[in-house]
Write a structure and sequence with these properties.
It contains 32 helices and 27 strands. The chain has about 750 residues and is of the alpha+beta class. It has 6 domains: about 120 residues, Winged helix-like DNA-binding domain superfamily/Winged helix DNA-binding domain (Arc Repressor Mutant, subunit A), CATH 1.10.10.10; about 80 residues, Arc Repressor Mutant, subunit A (Orthogonal Bundle), CATH 1.10.10; about 220 residues, no CATH class; about 80 residues, no CATH class; about 50 residues, no CATH class; about 70 residues, SH3 type barrels. The protein has a 6-stranded antiparallel sheet with strand order 22-27-23-24-25-26. Strands 19-20-18-17-21 form a 5-stranded mixed sheet, covered by helices on one side. A 4-stranded antiparallel sheet has the order 13-14-16-15. The radius of gyration is 37 Å and the shape is extended. The C terminus is likely disordered. It holds the Pfam family WYL.
């Protein structure tokens, strides 16, 4: 090493410019909070194993190969000019870019000679897929290693060649009766090292000999997969169709859960019985129900609620969401999916105990899921509009971009299929809404989809067969009303509703009159109301309310005494626990809601009654869960990026702290916080009087200690006024919180 070259990582960091230090903090934001007190503190944080692993995980295969070349060097450092010679098959520009990336992240340091910090060497246990050195494995290798390897049996050489590939650790098989396996013979010959009871490792020296003139393996250049090309307009139209479908289906599933909430399992999640019920009601597959329920939950539209918080219910946010336009509603679903920590594809798979994972189960939570979704879609966003990658090609490219995370890429094809169902990407090509989702969040996603979705319609088309056709997405009020007076028969671009005696009775139970229903259908239908529908309304209305139910806990009465006797003798009403109180009056010990349910299930048409004898027409408010903000509970998936202003402030603090340590002119005057000494006051007064910068040790109100360079302005009333060089602002310091103070050279403190 040249005498004028830095000898340590901290010394090298001092030679970096403010822009280079800022780039380091941006690339590794976990070391920037709270701001390091000086360069030594920064170097210490850069050596934390978790930080090193995170930084290495973000490197592509080509950059890691350049790092491997430095790690495999027999000397401590590698001259930068010699690095291209170690990688003859790798283009020089790729090597230079990799060195710049590694130096920016402080995974390599040095200018003329490149060094790898010790924590990086420990983190990369098998550089270039080669094992540890023989001395580290405590193996004595033969003196003439090439000759010994040339004399090996074919089956033994096959074992060594396999371990000399990209993973030097292998499993030690059991020996057959009367003979040793090739691996055990190699172990006895000292060509393999045992690392535990069942695994062996190939020493590095043997791997290098077997690889010959390519010790670092083949060049790990960026793969160039064949992209998929589609007409952007067609992609957007298909995305809009998928968006309409998922919006309609989410409303359907939440409406079903509003009418009959699903129970919360003891271990969390939604039961298989409820999943099957929803699939039957909506006429879709159980896997489709799982997807829709999980998406609704991720968007904050479905959560646990009820009197005992033991039911899955629509949330209060659901009501506000239904009032939004279609593009905003879609953006809420897409953003919830993108930021969710739940992997929907795990639903239905078997856990370690062999039990299938339920919908909404805690077992599908993976904290890396948001990073995985964003990284996969970000690759697609690098292609121009109308161009993308199919799932196999996307996985191949991701394996090159983050090889240390390759074992986490199995869900990528499923995530791409989910993105297609949501209209984010079609056939591996991002839609306009999907591209906006990645670049600007919900607002840009809604803008990208807004011109593609139709405007909601405020009418239906009544048909003679008692069906109602909605020729597009309905306005919220009309959709809510139709959910009461009719049942969804099929959904999609045009939703078909079916009117039946059960749906008319449901509307009457909710307080509608026959006149109200006639007026609603006449007002909402662009086609004439069929006569059959008018007859159906009148027939059901004549039967409705002939039987009355009230609270005793409760009573049942009717002017038709024969009807009352019929109800009492009907075996289907036994669960209502009715008994005769007087002619035309029955009573029960059950609540009115339960008696109403039993009588309706038996085919009668009872109505609720108030204490004054009036028919109860005010419907109960639908049950709602409190819900949560979408994305809440996701937890941090990585360090939060630094804003440009934060980067500059942090660099200033590091420079100021480093200058204070390097330029201290006198021994600091130290004191116990809360006890102000005469020496402290004397030194502070001198600094104010002579306008001298000081190095200040200070403890804030939270008990956190720090060191900073301060240009004092005044000292009065137990407080020091001064300009904090590190933070670039004027501050007030309580003298009793000062722990130490020393004079520094002004030019060094600010330089």
């Amino acid at each position: 090493m040249s005498p004028d070259q830095p000898a340590t990582l901290a010394a090298w960091l001092r030679t970096r410019t403010d822009e280079q230090l800022g780039a380091l903090l941006v690339s590794r934001p976990d070391v920037a909070r709270p701001a390091p007190s000086d360069v030594v503190g920064l170097a210490t944080r850069l050596a934390v194993p978790v930080s090193v692993d995170r930084a290495l995980d973000e490197l592509d295969a080509a950059t890691l190969q350049v790092l491997d070349a430095v790690l495999l060097s027999p000397t401590d450092g590698v001259p930068r000019t010699e690095l291209p010679g170690l990688l003859p098959d790798v283009p020089t520009e790729v090597v230079d870019a990799a060195v710049e990336t590694l130096a920016t992240r402080a995974l390599l340091w040095g200018d003329e000679e490149l060094h790898a910090p010790e924590p990086v060497r420990r983190a990369v246990r098998y550089p270039a897929g080669l094992g540890r050195r023989a001395v580290d494995l405590r193996v004595q290798l033969p003196r003439d290693l090439p000759a010994v390897l040339a004399d090996l049996a074919p089956d033994e050489r096959t074992v060594l060649d396999r371990l000399a590939g990209d993973r030097p650790v292998g499993h030690l098989p059991d020996s057959t009766a009367g003979s040793l396996s090739p691996a055990r013979r190699l172990l006895q010959a000292g060509l393999l090292a045992r690392i535990d009871a069942i695994n062996v490792e190939l020493p590095r020296e043997i791997g290098l000999v077997l690889r010959g003139d390519r010790p670092l393996g083949p060049p790990r250049l960026r793969p160039e997969p064949e992209p998929s090309r589609r007409d952007p307009a067609v992609v957007d139209r298909q995305a809009a169709g998928a968006a309409l479908e998922v919006l309609s289906r989410v409303v359907d599933v939440l409406t079903a859960l509003e009418e009959e909430p699903a129970g919360l399992l003891r271990g969390g999640g939604l039961g298989v019985r409820d999943q099957k019920r929803l699939a039957k009601e909506m006429r879709i597959g159980e896997a489709d129900v799982a997807f829709l329920v999980e998406v609704a939950h991720a968007a904050g539209l479905l959560d646990v609620g009820g009197a005992h918080r033991d039911e899955w219910l629509p949330t209060r946010s659901y009501d506000a969401w239904r009032e939004q336009d279609l593009a905003d509603r879609w953006a809420t679903l897409a953003w919830g999916w993108l930021t969710s920590v739940r992997l929907i594809s795990l639903v239905g798979q078997r856990d370690v105990a062999g039990k299938a994972v339920n919908v909404l189960s805690p077992d599908v939570v993976r904290q890396t899921a948001p990073v995985l979704r964003r990284s996969a879609l970000s690759v697609l966003a690098e292609f121009p509009a109308g161009t993308g990658l199919a799932a196999p090609e996307l996985v191949s490219l991701l394996r090159w971009r983050t090889p240390r995370r390759a074992d986490r890429l199995a869900p990528v094809p499923d995530l791409l299929a989910e993105a297609e169902r949501l209209g984010i990407a079609i056939g591996g090509v991002l839609s306009s809404g999907g591209r906006g989702l990645l670049t600007g969040g919900e607002d840009d996603a809604a803008d990208g989809m807004r011109g593609l979705l139709p405007e909601p319609v405020d009418h239906v088309l009544a048909q003679p067969d008692l069906s109602l056709i909605a020729p597009g997405p309905l306005v919220a009020d009309l959709a809510g009303t139709l959910g009461v007076v009719a049942d969804v028969e099929s959904s999609g671009g045009a939703t078909v509703y079916r009117v039946s005696d059960g749906s008319i009775r449901r509307a009457l139970d909710a307080g509608w009159s026959a006149t109200d229903l006639h007026d609603f259908f006449a007002r909402s239908s662009r086609t004439p109301v069929p006569q059959a529908l008018e007859y159906l309304i009148d027939d059901v209305a004549r039967q409705h309310g002939r039987l009355r139910v009230g609270a005793i806990e409760c009573y049942v009465r009717s002017d038709d005494h024969g009807l009352v006797s019929q109800v009492l003798s009907d075996r289907r009403t036994a669960n209502a626990e009715l008994r005769r109180l007087a002619p035309g009056v029955l009573v029960s010990g059950l609540p009115p809601e339960e008696v109403l349910s039993v009588l309706r299930a038996a085919g009668y048409a009872p109505a609720g009654e108030s204490a004054g004898g009036a028919v109860l027409t005010r419907p109960q408010a639908p049950p709602r869960a409190a819900g949560r903000r979408p994305g809440a509970g996701a937890g941090p998936v990585g360090p939060r990026p630094l804003a440009p202003g934060d980067v500059a402030a942090t660099v200033r603090e590091i420079r100021a702290g480093d200058a204070a340590l390097a330029a201290r002119r006198s021994e600091p005057v130290r004191q116990v916080p809360g006890v102000t000494t005469a020496s402290t006051l004397e030194l502070l007064s001198r600094a104010v009087r002579e306008n001298l910068p000081i190095w200040l040790g200070y403890v804030d109100a939270q008990g956190s200690g720090s060191q900073r360079v301060v240009q004092p302005v005044s000292l009065a009333g137990g407080f020091l006024q001064g300009f904090d060089e590190g933070r670039g602002e004027s501050r007030t310091f309580a003298v009793h919180r000062i722990t130490s103070v020393a004079l520094v050279e002004a030019e060094d403190a600010t330089g």
